[in-house]
Write a structure and sequence with these properties.
The structure is a homodimer of 253-residue chains. The first copy, chain A, is α+β, with helices and mostly antiparallel strands and 253 residues long. Chain A has 7 helices and 9 strands, in the order H-H-H-H-E-E-E-H-E-E-H-E-E-E-E-H. Helices cover 27% and strands 26% of the residues of chain A. In chain A, a hairpin with a 4-residue loop joins strand 4 and strand 5. In chain A, helix 1 crosses helix 5. Chain A starts with a helix and ends with a helix.
């Protein structure tokens, strides 16, 4: 027990140093996420990690609309060419794993000790296409985040349509990621959703978020969710997030 | 295709007659739910149904706090005694299945035709204790609804804690059920949640909802979520629901 506690404290200290380490690596200090399990966003060397599955890449369950939007944004992403040069692009695809903690500095130890069976709510089902299929992209120049979601058959609420809680989950995922990019580790403080039109199961929707303002530890974000072609508004929403320290959360909330 | 359409229309007509049928059975016409898969609430004879599993009954994954609250409310529920008499009680346990549609009048046909693999979002995981374990109770005299939820390890958002979307899902489940009891079939129009304190994975929480007012097709509901002993406030929230017709939803939203 004492040894576990010692390991945990050391891991927490390392977690606390993520921001400064990112700065050293030339990345902004604002990219620690609890929501998007963002190993890539942390900018840490691959030696820290085993090779997890990146769930934000296409799989056989993705339908035509999901693939169309993925390719639309992915084709505008910066990438390393075969010649080893970096191609510029306004968008960046955000990889997504089934747990954040494991992929942060020191998180390997923590994830073994703290609820090792835990999995990210939006990535907890192994049956491809059954629940949430999604990919997020971020545009740093325009400070915009988009999410493309395909709603599986296990998300039912009203007959044949997506549950209101599943819709809230999609929104929280996109705006939480955006707030995290803007301010570092955050928790949702307020989420206010107007549901305008039900979403049939199987449909693909597009979520777009914008940061309205920052005030100290607070960041205000808005988000709208439309049909994949943008013609139908499903929801509009606002949210407030507050910055937190990871160690505070883990050592007793 | 034509035959399927014909069956569907007949089933929809039957669904449309649920309210009047309920009245004939001496039940209020306000108990059709999309959220709580309420075969029992519909008051229909068992011959209409196969025998589905009632997920709101205790299982081996339920911890001491979950069991304590279940027994606290269940002991105050009305029930039929061994002698065949009805024992009075202010509370009623609301059974819960993994799909609504199948258990409404005519819904057997619809559930075969419309997304037959679909499952209620909150009941889509067969691994007991992994996601949402919950039971709802309703008190008609006080017009109060409570939900007791135990949060499983697959609901993670912030490390070791419940995802904001999973919390929204719990709230939507309780207040959606309450609004349905008050006004018949409804859809969520607005959901506004203040997140006050994170919920550690594995914890049991208590949700209590009240109907504030009704205006035509609108019903306004409030809800607070506390720790199982009531000492810590996790969220407070408000919501607006609007009445709808089932057939409108199914034939094109």
């Amino acid at each position: 027990m004492a040894r576990s506690l010692g390991r945990m404290c050391k891991a927490l200290q390392r977690l606390g140093s993520v921001s400064s380490m990112q700065s050293q690596l030339g990345r902004p200090s604002s990219c620690v996420s609890f929501r998007t399990d963002s190993r890539d966003m942390l900018g840490l060397p691959s030696a820290f990690f085993s090779k997890p599955r990146d769930f934000s890449l296409p799989n056989s369950s993705w339908g035509p609309e999901m693939m169309r939007l993925y390719e639309q944004y992915n084709s505008q992403c910066g990438e390393e060419t075969e010649g080893g040069e970096n191609r510029e692009g306004p968008w960046k695809r955000l990889p997504s794993y089934n747990r954040f903690l494991k992929y942060a500095t020191g998180g390997v130890y923590l994830s073994r000790m703290i609820h090792k069976k835990a999995r990210l709510f939006t990535r907890n089902n192994r049956d491809q296409g059954a629940t949430f299929e999604y990919v997020l992209f971020f545009n740093s120049e325009e400070d915009k985040c988009v999410g493309v979601f395909q709603a599986g058959h296990l998300l039912e609420g009203p007959p044949g349509h997506v549950h209101g809680g599943a819709i809230a989950t999609m929104i929280d995922t996109v705006i939480g990621t955006h707030a995290t990019i803007a301010c570092g580790p955050v928790l949702t403080a307020n989420l206010n959703i107007n549901y305008r039109r039900p979403i049939p199961l199987g449909n693909t929707v597009l979520l777009e978020s914008s940061v309205d303002k920052k005030e100290g530890k607070k960041v205000f974000v808005t988000c709208k969710m439309t049909s994949s072609d943008g013609s139908k508004l499903h929801t509009d929403s606002t949210a407030l997030f507050v910055s937190i320290k990871v160690s505070q959360l883990l050592l007793g909330s």
